[in-house]
Amino acid sequence: LINREDAILVDVREPDEFAKGHILGARNIPLAQLEARAGELEKYKAKPVIVHCETGNRSASGLATLRAKGFDRAVNLAGGYSAWKQAGLPVEK
Q1: Which of these is catalytic: 10, 26, 50, 53?
Q2: Active-site residue, 53 included
Q3: List of residues 6+ apart from 25 with CB closer than 8 A
Q4: Could you give the CA distance from residue 24 to residue 38 in angstroms, rounded to a whole number?
Q5: Entry pTM
Q6: CA–CA separation, 57 vs 70, rounded Å?
Q7: What are the pLDDT digits (tens) for 2-58?
Q8: HSE-up of residue 11 (Cα within 13 Å, Cβ side)
C-alpha cells in the first residue's frame, strides 16, 4: 500500500516510544489524541491509512476511531512496529 498507493502511516504510540524509533515517514498521533486530531488526516481520506502501534493492539482501537470518522480505507498493520523492524524494513529515530 505504501509503494503502490502512497498510503499514510499513523503511529498511535506515545511520543516517547515514537522518539526511540518509528517507521520511516510515519506521523505520530497518540491513541488518546486520535479522535480529536483526526481532522489532521482529513485530506488523506481517499488514500489508504495504515494505523500501527508497537504490536497491533492499541492500533486496533485507533482503526475503529478512524473508520467511525469515515476513513474507509484505513487498515491495521499486523504485528505493528515490532513486526516491521523484525522484517528489516526502514525505520528512523
Answers
A1: 53
A2: yes
A3: 9
A4: 21
A5: 0.92
A6: 21
A7: 767 779 999 999 999 999 999 999 999 999 999 999 999 999 998 999 999 999 889
A8: 22
